[in-house]
Amino acid sequence: MSTTRRQIFCAGIAISTTSLINASMASILTPKTTAGPFYPNMEIPEIDADLTRIAGRAGTALGDIVDLSGRLLNQNGVPVKNGRIEIWQCDVNGRYRHTSERSNETIDRNFQGFGFTNTSSLGEYYFRTIKPIAYPGRAPHIHFKVLLPDRGKLVTQLYIENDKRNKSDSLYNRLTEEQIARSVTRFEPSTDGLFKAKYDLVIQQ
Ligand SMILES: [Fe+2]
């Protein structure tokens, strides 16, 4: 085989292997996990997709501000439109918006703690929030709930990829390697001063 033909042949193998990995990963569903004890039950002055600002307040949430976006897909990679996506997470001081929470830390009144949006015709969603925070017993995470009319729901948690605190988180440690790949993403600083994070959710449909 000539060098050129060998290179093309080898490139073909590389492409097919990559495609196979992508194809097999594409069908891995986002794992279902517990909602935890702190799904918000307190009145929140404003509920929208920007958790870092509250109408009528001049301040901005403390923490690293993140543009968090992604798509809602089914197991075949087809976008799922009109899905309701909720997120909730603690503020920079580890406080949730829940009456059963016991903490002496100050609540960041400029952080919503909860938000929702609906996926577009391309299955896309977008939130502005803060980079997730660790609190006693838990690695940094953001809770997600996906609600589809008449088709049930998915509750899951998103972690920071390669965060050293993940290994000591009991919920994270219950995940398989494939499920971890579906439950983590990078939070990378950007030139506009915000962090960017991409996270696709894959549901059975
Ligand atoms: Fe939590």
Protein traits:
five-stranded mixed sheet, Protocatechuate 3,4-Dioxygenase, subunit A, 10 strands, 3 helices, 205 residues, single chain, alpha/beta, binds fe (ii) ion
Report on the architecture of this protein.
The chain is 16% helix and 26% strand. The chain has 205 residues and is an alpha/beta fold. The protein has a single domain, classed as Protocatechuate 3,4-Dioxygenase, subunit A. The strands form two sheets. Strands 1, 4, 8, 9 and 10 form a five-stranded mixed beta sheet that branches. It has a five-stranded mixed beta sheet with strand order 3-2-5-6-7, with no helix packed on it. Strand 8 and strand 9 form a beta hairpin. The protein is globular. Fe (ii) ion (FE2) binds at residues 36, 38, 138, 141, 143.
SSE layout:
Blueprint: H1 3-26, E1 65-74, E2 84-88, E3 114-118, E4 124-130, E5 141-147, E6 153-160, H2 170-173, H3 177-181, E7 184-185, E8 188-189, E9 195-198, E10 201-203
Parallel strand pairs: 1-9, 1-10, 6-7
Antiparallel strand pairs: 1-4, 2-3, 2-5, 5-6, 8-9
The structure holds fe (ii) ion.
Please report which band the strand proportion falls in: under 5%, 5-15%, 15-25%, 25-35%, 35-45% or over 45%.
Answer: 25-35%
Which ions and ligands are bound to the chains? Answer: fe (ii) ion
How large is the radius of gyration?
19 Å
Question: Residue ranges: pLDDT <50 for 5 or more in a row?
Answer: 8-19
What is the domain tally? 1
Mean pLDDT: 89
Spell out the CATH superfamily.
Answer: Aromatic compound dioxygenase
* CATH domain fold name: Protocatechuate 3,4-Dioxygenase, subunit A
Give a short account of the largest sheet: 5 strands, mixed
Helix content: 10-25%
Overall, the morphology is globular
Helical element count?
Answer: 3
Number of strands: 10
Structural class: alpha/beta
Query: Tell me, what is the CATH class?
Result: Mainly Beta
Secondary-structure element series: HEEEEEEHHEEEE
The CATH architecture is Sandwich
Straight-line distance between termini: 46 Å
